[in-house]
Every structure is written in structure tokens, then in C-alpha cells.
Predict the structure of N-alpha-acetyltransferase 20.
Amino acid sequence: MTTLRAFTCDDLFRFNNIFSSAFSLTSTAPQYGIPFYLQYLAHWPEYFIVAEAPGGELMGYSDCGWCVIPKLMLCLFTVMGKAEGSVAREEWHGHVTALSVAPEFRRLGLAAKLMELLEEISEKKGGFFVDLFVRVSNQVAVNMYKQLGYSVYRTVLEYYSASSGEPDEDAYDMRKALSRDTEKKSIIPLPHPVRPEDIE
């Protein structure tokens, strides 16, 4: 049975070094250090959720997915986010920083459940919407988010930095209005793309 729980400092020492070494060979994987995770734990602990499978597969976490790591006895699925924006301008919202589910545990509703929990937290915090950024090329994720009620608010040109001489990749800024946004103003799509420096 899967257990949903808050991410703890102990989790950092259980897998952060493993992630760094496991993904150092992957050019598209983000390299998050302990300070990055501690920032989220200190400022938005309620937005950092782990789903733990007892006696699960041997794997580790990345924004881009998962990889098999020998001799780990734990399977982690995470969603991490934060609250940000301006209340006065009706832009106070929850933001999904990362959502990861192991490939062999996809299509079981775990991503939907983790997103639902993050949305509930954002509702309790008085958010107008929840947003996230996703690679335009990641149509599997884009379609999943659409099924969860998200829509494309805007395209952000060259949001993701490429490596190995590849061109930078565009992102969709996808949003889902919460109950506080009764007129759904937060999800009215922008008519033109923006650049990363134009994002507030």
C-alpha cells in the first residue's frame, strides 16, 4: 500500500547524493543540491509530498523521471511546489516545481493524487490558481495535465536550457483555476509567447 507523507530532512540524506551521482551522466537531468531542497523544506514544507511504496522497486528521483539505482529498498514518488505571487493582483498561487512518478508505477493515478494534494494545499492557502512549466515536446505530460484540468496559459520561449549544442526548448506555462478565481481570469491564454525574463 502506498503511503503519502511529508518530505523530511532525512529524505535528503537517503537519496540526494544518489541522485547527483546517478544523473550526472544525463544531460537533461537537473542537478539539485541539498540547499535547493532545504529551501523548499524551510519555506513550503506542506508543498513537498512523497508517496512511498513499502518494499518498492529500486529507484531514484529526477525531474525528468526515475532511474534504477541498485541496493535501495525504497520507492519514492514526489511532488514539490511552493506558494508565490501577489494577492493584490490576484496572482497568489501554488506552483508545481517537480512531479515525478516511476515509469512502472504510471497510469495508476499516483500523479493525479499528488497533484490533487498540492491543489488542496493551494486552495487552503487562498490561491487563485496552480501553475507549472512543462517542455512543449513532452506531450505525454502535457496531455496528462490537460486531463487533470490544466490548460496552456502561455508559451515561454527557450525556457529550458539545452546542452551539447542543442537549441533551447520552449515551455508551456499551464494553469488550473481554483475556487477563489470565480471568473477564471487566471487561465485566459495570452495571445503571444513570452521570454523567460518576462515572467514575474
Summary: Strands lie at 3-6, 48-53, 59-62, 65-68, 75-84, 93-100, 129-135, 151-160, 169-177. The chain has one domain: 3-198.
